[in-house]
Amino acid sequence: MNKSFQILVQSYRISIGIELIQFIENSLVYERSTDIDDVILNTLGGAIGVISIFCLIIL
């Protein structure tokens, strides 16, 4: 598995973890929202970060 794919998987896992924590907190104590859009956009942000780093390395 190459490094960029590992970074994308980790950003996805972290995003899912944060959303699960927010869901549990919303069920128990706080009024926080959970949304799949957050997971998608955070993973997309990880992909943009990987592309940015590759562009900086090439330059």
TrEMBL record:
This is VanZ family protein. The keyword Transmembrane helix applies. It comes from Parageobacillus thermoglucosidasius. The chain crosses the membrane at residues 39-58. Keywords: Membrane, Transmembrane, Transmembrane helix. Residues 7-54 form the VanZ-like domain. PANTHER family: MEMBRANE PROTEIN, MEMBRANE PROTEIN-RELATED. It holds the Pfam family VanZ. It comes from the Bacteria. The keyword ATP-binding does not apply. InterPro entries: Teicoplanin_resist-assoc, VanZ-like.
